[in-house]
Design goal:
It is a single chain. This protein has a single domain (12-222), classed as Vaccinia Virus protein VP39 (Rossmann fold, 3-Layer(aba) Sandwich), CATH 3.40.50. It has eight helices and seven strands; from the N terminus they run αααααβαβαββαβββ. It has helices spanning 16-28, 35-51, 60-63, 66-74, 76-80, 104-110, 123-136, 167-175; strands at residues 91-96, 114-119, 141-144, 156-162, 178-189, 202-207, 216-222. A seven-stranded mixed β-sheet has the order 3-2-1-4-5-7-6, sandwiched between helices. Strand 4 (156-162), helix 8 and strand 5 form a beta-alpha-beta unit. Helix 1 (16-28) runs parallel beside helix 4 (66-74) and helix 2 packs antiparallel against helix 6 (104-110).
Length: 224
């Protein structure tokens, strides 16, 4: 009987090249995180990479660059809007279609004063996120095992999603649950939102990630 050899992957917490890429990215954006916060980000990354052997949370090649590709991308909302609310109490932020937890887990780690809801209908991913939140001690994160439309969440300060659908579809789903002046934020490839340039209601910020050729876009729209 043939035995399959399991390839060994270095954990993100042990990959110093990946950690350096993350550190340089944060420094470029004038972000300073505590050692405890970084350790939690590394621990979350380890949990995702380990769970990826059981279910397809990310592509196999992305497991090797989880810090530089997925953690950095997940921190973009913090860099551009979240830092302004780091010390504000009683804010609620929901993430639609959270999957394996990006961007909501990194955001909950760096913004402990905000309460986050990770909304995801797929049972195996819900169970993983619930376990990961418990392991990380994230008391400011609630996992909701439903579709966003049936989650009964409302009057939210922020709603986010990452490469879920088109901006227009995502906005239609989100806006009904936003409070007045609430903010919808999404992460997409720039070429998928280039048609939105010039819309006065939408703000688009282009960015790049370490060792990635593609140009990405952080897109926000406020609720009237």
């Amino acid at each position: 009987m043939e035995t399959k050899t399991k390839l060994f992957h270095v954990k993100p917490s042990e990959d110093f090249q990946q950690q350096n890429l993350l550190s340089k990215f944060l420094a470029t954006h004038n972000v300073i995180l505590s050692e405890n916060t970084l350790d939690k980000l590394f621990e979350y990354a380890d949990l995702v990479v380990e769970e990826n052997e059981n279910q397809n949370l990310i592509s196999k090649k992305d497991a090797e660059k989880f810090l530089s590709r997925h953690i950095t991308d997940s921190l973009i909302p913090y860099i551009y809007i979240g830092k302004n609310f780091a010390n504000t109490e009683n804010l609620c932020w929901a993430d639609m279609g959270s999957g394996g937890g990006c961007p909501v887990f990194p955001l909950a780690i760096v913004l402990p004063n905000i309460h986050f809801y990770a909304v995801e209908p797929r049972t195996k991913r819900v169970l993983f996120m619930q376990s990961a939140a418990q392991n990380l001690g994230l008391k400011n994160l609630t996992v909701v095992g439903k579709r966003f439309e049936t989650s009964e969440l409302s009057n939210l300060d922020f709603i986010s999603c990452r490469a879920l659908s088109t901006f227009e579809n995502d906005w239609e789903r989100a806006k009904v649950a936003l409070k007045p002046k609430g903010i919808f934020a999404t992460l997409k490839s720039f070429n998928n939102v280039e048609n939105l340039l010039g819309d006065p209601n939408i703000n688009i910020t282009k960015y790049t990630l370490p060792q990635e050729d593609q140009v990405y876009a952080f897109v926000t729209r406020g609720n009237e």
